[in-house]
C-alpha cells in the first residue's frame, strides 16, 4: 500500500527532519560543514528518487520517490516560507551597535560586491555562452548572492575571530536583498524583451531599499509597543515576533513594491536593539533560543529541498557547460577579490570603516559560498513560462554547477584556510587574560573544592590527589602568565572599563526581571551601558566617561516636555519625564554601588592595584555625578524620593521572595500546590506595586520663592500668583542659560546648583538664592556674558514681563538685586587680586570642570 497525498508530504518532511537531526553530529565528527553535508544528502536523495522512478524493479517505492522528486514546493514558496525566517533571525542575533562601526564595510560587501559580481560574471560569460548580455547578467545576479550559514557555522565551530563572523553575518542581511532586486529587474527585461533604463532602475533600486527600511523600522517599533502593552503575556509576545517577519515581508513585497528582505532585516534589527529593554530577560532568552531552533529547521530544510532539485536542474549538461561553470566561478572569485582587496582599503583610508586585516580579506573572498537562495532563483527562471527553453537550460545548469563548486571546493577547504591564517586563535588581549584569569581562578577553585570535600567527607588521599592537580595547574598558569608585560596600563584600563560596562548591563537585565520598573527607563539605561562598552572599546577611558555624561543629559523627550511646560503650561509630559528621570537615577545609583564592589572583589585581584585605583577614580566620578543629580531632586521632592526608593526596595524583596519559594520547590520542601499558592500571594502584592506614583512638579514652588532674598517684603498673595505663572527648568552641567549679548527673555531663580558667567576677566558664580539675568533686565541691557551651569541645577524660570511688573510694583526687589550684584563683583575682584598676587594664572571654574575630561582625553 502506497502513502499518497498530504500524508505522503508530511511523512517526507518528517523523514527529512530525521535526516537533518543525524547530519549535525555526523558533520561535527567528520569536521565538515553541516551545510555541505546537507547539500550532499539532498543531492543523494534527489538522485536516488530519480533512479527509483526509472527502475521497474522497485515500483513499491514509486510513490515515495515521486513525492521527494516532485515535492510540492516552487521557487516562490522557497522565498516566501523560508527567507523571512532566515533574514529575521540573522538580524535578531546581530549586535547592532558593534555592527554600526562596520556599516560602510557591510554595505560594500552587500551591495557593491553583488553589483560588481553581476557585471563581472555576466561580462565573462557573454563571449562564450551564446546568450544575450541581459541573460548573462541575469545569471550573474543569481550567483552573486552569498550564503552565510555555512561560513558562519564554520567560523563558530573553530572559534574564528568574532569580527570576521560579524562581517559575514552583516553582509548576509542585505546581500540577498540586493541580488533579488537586481534579479527582478533583469528577469523582467528578459521576459518582456525591453531595454533597461539605467536612471529609472537606480531610482527604483534606492527607493526600494529606503522605503523598506522605513517600513521595517516602523512596524518593528509598533510591534514593540504592542508587546509592552500585553501585560507580560509570554505566549502572546512570542507569537507577535513570529508574525512580524511575514507581515513586514509580504506588505513590502506584495503591496508597496519595496524590498521585503530589507524590511524584514530592518524589523529584526529594531527588535535586536530594543528587545532586551522591552522583553523580560527570561523571555528574551527564550525568544532567541526559539528563533535559533526555527532557523535550524528552516535553514536545513531549505538546503535539503533545494539540493534535491540539483539532479533535475543538471539534466542535459554538456562538457561545454562545465567550461562555462568554470569561467563563471573564476570570474566570481576575481570580482569578490577585487572588491575586498581593492575597495576596503579605500574605506579605511577615508576613515569610513575600521581597517580589515589581509587574513580577514582572504577568508572573506574564499568564503563567498552560494547556497539555497541561488538555487531558488535559478528554479524561478526554469519555472517561468515566458523564459525560452535554451535560456532556462543555461541558467539552471550554470547556476547549479556554480553552487556545487563553491560548496564542495570552498566549503570543504575554508576550515583549513582559517586555521592556516591563525584566525582561530584568541586576540592578544584575550591570550594575556587567559593565563591571568586561570592562575587566580584555579586557586579559588582549589580552596572551594577543599572546603566542599571536607563537608562531604571525602578521604584525605582523594582530596590531595584532586586538589593537588588543580594547584599544579594554577602554578603552571601563574608561571606562564605574561599579563603584566603583554598589556600596557592603557589596554588594561580599557579592558577593565569594558568589563565594568558589561557587568552593568548584566546587573540592569537582572533588575529588569523585577516587575513594576519602567520599560523606558530600563531601555535608556541599557542603551547607555552599551554605549559605554563601545566608548571604552574605541576611545578608552575618555569614551567611557563621555558615554556616562551623555546618560545624565536631558533627552530630547525631556527637553520637549520642558518646552511645553514653559511655553504652554502643559505639565503632564514633564511630570512623566521627571518621574522616569528620578527612577533612572535611583537605579543607576544602586548599580554604581554594586559596580564598585565588583571592581574591588573581582577586577582588582585580576588587573592589579594600580589599574584598580584608576578604575576606582572613574567609578568614583560616576558615583559623584549620580549623587549630585539625585540629591538635587531629593532636596526638593523628598516625599516622592522616599516613596520611590521604598517601592523599588519592596519590589526587590518580592523578587527575592519569589526566588526563595522556587528554591523550596526545587528542594522538595513544599508541594506544587503550596508553591502555586505562595506565588499567587506574591503576585497580588506585585500588582498593587505596579500602580504608578504621582509626581507633582509644582509642589512647594511658592515656598521656594519666599526663600529668595530678592522677594522678601513681597506679599504672599503676589508670590502665589507668580508661582502659578512660572515654569521649572532642570539643567545639566554645561548647559547655556543666557548667551552673551542676548536678550533677557527669562530670569532664572536658582533653587539648587551652581552657574557661572565670565565678565571682564572675572568669574561670577550664581548659587542657591540668586537670580540669573535679573540685573541686566532691570538695567535694560543685554546679557554681559554667557551663563553656563556648573552643576545639576534646579531653576525657576520667570518670564521677563512678569518679573519687570514685579520690580515696578515693589522697588525693594530692585534694591536687593543691585546690592547682591555689587557685592558679587567686589568678591570676584578680590579673588582675582589674590590669585594675581600669587602670580598664578587665573583659571575659570568652567575650565576646572572640564579638566577631568581633558585629563582623560590626553592620557
TrEMBL record:
Cross-referenced InterPro entries: Cation/H_exchanger_CPA1, Cation/H_exchanger_TM, cNMP-bd_dom, cNMP-bd_dom_sf, RmlC-like_jellyroll
Keyword Cell membrane: yes
Keyword ATP-binding: no
Top-level taxon: Bacteria
Protein's cellular compartments: Cell membrane
Membrane-related topology note: Multi-pass membrane protein
A Pfam family hit: Na_H_Exchanger
Transmembrane domains' residue ranges: 6-23, 35-57, 77-94, 106-129, 202-219, 225-248, 255-274, 294-315, 322-344, 364-382, 394-418
Residue span(s) of domain Cyclic nucleotide-binding: 710-824
Primary location: membrane
Record Gene3D superfamilies: 6.10.140.1330, Jelly Rolls
Keywords: Cell membrane, Ion transport, Membrane, Sodium, Sodium transport, Transmembrane, Transmembrane helix, Transport
Protein name: Cation:proton antiporter
Amino acid at each position: 500500500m502506497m502513502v499518497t497525498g498530504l500524508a505522503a508530504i508530511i511523512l517526507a518532511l518528517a523523514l527529512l527532519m530525521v535526516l537533518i537531526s543525524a547530519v549535525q553530529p555526523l558533520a561535527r565528527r567528520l569536521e565538515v560543514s553541516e551545510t555541505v553535508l546537507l547539500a550532499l544528502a539532498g543531492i543523494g536523495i534527489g538522485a536516488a528518487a530519480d533512479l527509483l522512478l526509472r527502475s521497474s524493479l522497485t515500483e513499491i517505492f514509486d510513490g515515495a520517490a515521486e513525492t521527494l522528486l516532485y515535492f510540492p514546493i516552487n521557487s516562490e514558496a522557497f522565498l516566501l516560507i523560508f527567507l523571512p525566517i532566515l533574514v529575521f533571525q540573522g538580524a535578531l542575533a546581530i549586535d547592532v551597535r558593534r555592527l554600526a562601526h562596520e556599516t560602510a564595510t557591510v554595505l560594500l560587501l552587500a551591495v557593491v560586491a553583488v553589483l560588481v559580481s553581476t557585471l563581472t560574471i555576466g561580462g565573462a560569460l557573454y563571449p562564450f555562452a551564446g546568450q544575450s548580455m541581459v541573460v548573462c547578467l541575469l545569471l550573474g545576479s543569481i550567483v552573486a548572492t552569498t550564503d552565510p550559514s555555512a561560513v558562519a557555522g564554520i567560523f563558530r565551530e573553530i572559534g574564528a575571530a568574532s569580527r570576521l563572523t560579524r562581517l559575514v553575518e552583516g553582509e548576509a542581511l542585505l546581500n540577498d536583498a540586493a541580488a533579488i532586486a537586481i534579479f527582478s529587474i533583469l528577469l523582467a527585461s528578459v521576459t518582456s524583451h525591453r531595454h533597461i533604463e539605467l536612471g529609472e532602475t537606480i531610482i527604483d533600486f534606492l527607493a526600494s531599499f529606503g522605503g523598506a527600511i522605513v517600513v521595517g523600522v516602523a512596524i518593528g517599533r509598533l510591534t514593540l509597543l504592542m508587546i509592552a502593552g500585553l501585560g507580560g503575556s509570554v505566549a502572546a509576545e512570542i507569537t507577535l515576533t513570529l508574525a512580524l517577519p511575514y507581515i513586514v515581508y509580504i506588505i513590502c513585497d506584495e503591496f508597496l513594491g519595496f524590498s521585503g528582505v530589507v524590511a524584514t532585516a530592518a524589523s529584526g534589527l529594531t527588535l535586536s536593539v530594543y528587545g532586551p529593554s522591552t522583553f523580560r530577560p527570561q523571555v528574551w532568552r527564550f525568544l532567541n533560543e526559539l528563533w535559533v531552533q526555527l532557523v535550524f529547521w528552516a535553514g536545513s530544510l531549505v538546503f535539503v529541498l533545494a539540493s534535491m532539485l540539483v539532479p533535475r536542474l543538471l539534466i542535459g549538461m554538456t562538457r561545454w557547460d562545465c567550461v562555462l561553470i568554470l569561467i563563471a566561478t573564476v570570474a566570481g572569485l576575481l570580482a569578490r577579490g577585487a572588491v575586498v582587496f581593492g575597495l576596503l582599503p579605500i574605506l579605511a583610508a577615508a576613515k569610513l570603516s575600521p581597517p580589515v586585516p589581509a587574513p580577514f580579506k582572504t577568508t572573506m573572498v574564499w568564503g563567498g559560498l552560494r547556497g539555497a537562495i541561488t538555487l531558488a532563483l535559478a528554479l524561478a527562471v526554469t519555472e517561468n513560462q515566458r523564459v525560452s527553453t535554451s535560456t532556462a537550460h543555461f541558467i539552471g545548469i550554470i547556476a547549479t554547477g556554480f553552487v556545487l563548486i563553491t560548496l564542495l571546493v570552498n566549503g570543504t577547504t575554508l576550515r583549513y584556510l582559517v586555521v592556516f591564517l591563525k584566525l582561530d586563535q584568541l586576540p592578544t588581549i584575550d591570550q594575556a587574560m587567559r593565563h591571568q584569569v586561570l592562575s587566580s581562578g584555579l586557586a579559588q577553585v582549589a580552596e572551594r573544592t577543599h572546603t566542599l570535600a571536607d563537608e562531604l567527607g571525602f578521604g584525605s588521599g582523594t582530596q590531595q590527589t584532586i586538589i593537588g592537580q588543580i594547584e599544579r595547574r594554577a602554578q603552571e598558569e601563574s608561571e606562564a602568565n605574561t599579563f603584566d608585560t603583554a598589556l600596557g596600563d592603557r589596554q588594561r584600563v580599557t579592558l577593565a572599563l569594558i568589563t565594568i560596562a558589561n557587568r552593568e548591563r548584566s546587573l540592569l537585565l537582572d533588575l529588569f526581571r523585577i516587575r513594576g520598573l519602567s520599560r523606558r527607563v530600563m531601555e535608556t539605561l541599557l542603551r547607555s551601558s552599551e554605549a559605554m562598552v563601545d566608548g571604552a572599546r574605541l576611545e578608552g577611558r575618555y569614551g567611557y566617561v563621555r558615554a556616562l555624561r551623555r546618560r545624565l543629559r536631558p533627552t530630547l523627550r525631556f527637553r520637549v516636555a520642558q518646552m511645553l511646560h514653559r511655553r504652554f503650561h502643559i505639565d503632564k509630559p514633564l511630570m512623566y519625564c521627571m518621574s522616569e528621570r528620578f527612577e533612572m537615577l535611583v537605579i543607576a545609583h544602586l548599580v554604581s554601588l554594586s559596580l564598585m564592589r565588583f571592581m574591588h572583589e573581582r577586577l582588582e585581584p585580576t588587573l592589579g592595584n594600580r589599574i584598580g585605583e584608576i578604575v576606582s577614580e572613574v567609578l568614583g566620578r560616576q558615583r559623584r555625578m549620580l549623587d549630585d543629580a539625585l540629591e538635587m531632586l531629593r532636596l526638593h521632592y523628598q516625599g516622592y524620593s522616599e516613596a520611590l526608593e521604598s517601592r523599588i526596595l519592596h519590589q526587590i524583596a518580592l523578587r527575592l521572595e519569589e526566588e526563595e519559594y522556587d528554591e523550596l520547590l526545587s528542594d522538595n520542601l513544599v508541594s506544587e500546590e503550596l508553591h502555586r499558592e505562595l506565588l499567587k500571594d506574591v503576585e497580588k502584592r506585585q500588582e498593587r506595586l505596579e500602580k504608578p506614583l504621582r509626581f507633582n512638579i509644582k509642589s512647594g514652588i511658592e515656598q521656594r520663592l519666599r526663600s529668595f532674598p530678592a522677594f522678601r517684603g513681597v506679599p504672599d498673595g503676589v508670590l502665589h500668583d507668580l508661582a502659578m505663572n512660572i515654569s521649572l527648568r532642570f539643567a545639566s552641567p554645561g548647559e547655556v542659560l543666557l548667551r552673551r549679548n542676548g536678550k533677557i527673555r527669562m530670569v532664572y531663580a536658582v533653587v539648587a546648583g551652581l552657574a557661572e558667567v565670565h565678565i571682564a576677566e572675572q568669574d561670577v558664580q550664581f548659587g542657591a538664592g540668586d537670580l540669573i539675568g535679573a540685573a541686566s533686565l532691570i538695567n535694560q541691557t543685554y546679557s554681559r556674558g554667557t551663563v553656563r551651569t556648573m552643576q545639576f541645577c534646579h531653576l525657576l524660570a520667570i518670564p521677563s514681563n512678569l518679573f519687570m511688573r514685579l520690580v515696578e510694583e515693589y522697588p525693594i526687589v530692585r534694591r536687593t538685586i543691585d546690592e547682591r550684584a555689587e557685592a558679587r563683583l567686589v568678591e570676584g575682584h578680590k579673588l582675582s587680586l589674590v590669585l594675581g598676587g600669587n602670580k598664578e594664572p587665573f583659571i575659570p571654574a568652567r575650565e576646572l570642570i572640564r579638566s577631568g575630561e581633558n585629563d582623560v582625553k590626553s592620557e
